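Table 4 source record.
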Amino acid sequence: MIPRERPGSPHIATAVSQRPGPDGSPEPTFLRQRGARGRRSGLARSSLKVGVRLAAAVAPAGLLAMLTGSCLITTDPEFKVPEPGPPVLLPDTLSPDPRDIIQISATEAERLFEAQVQSDDAGVPLEVRLLFNYGQADGEQPYVDFIEGTDVPPGTVADGPRAVRARWTKGKFNMSQAGCYRFTLMVGHDFDNRGCPQQDDYDAVSWLVLQCDAINGCPTALTDCPPSDFDCRNLPTGGGS
């Protein structure tokens, strides 16, 4: 009896001859052939070999295309050191109000001038000064005298407003006579030897101040106020006040 191939078997058997078995009865001899699955496996292996050869041939060309189509960085990138930006004094935070005429009595010992500032400082502190008669030349500087305020630590606009303060004290400025004077609060980075911030990097606000005396009181009019011919953008060339 010819044995049947089990279902799902990967091979097909075909009887090609007969020979005597052990008991003398004829026994078929089978030639085993590859089945459909075997043929598919062989075809897959052949395709894989062809694919590998093709990939090996194409890879250098593809790599060359990638290199020639891309930018090659051959030097280290240069990064500019950030520079401070000009500070901005916020008008609504100025104290006293610069629209008012400031009166200083004969007995007054001090007066505080303050505001809020915003700036990107790039790690450089903000310097604060209270200038006396800013606009009037004194040699090569555009003011007569100054008081140093409290420096502001470096910050950014994202940090929000920061306080700027400078305090006038009696006797610091030459105000022995009753009359009109000008006080200016200035903030900037890196003041030069003429007392102005470098690179136009500053903001300033001024007040007119009336110095009163003990006998006649305060002046009734803004007369003989100091000139405003110069500033840190228009510096005097010398020659005094």
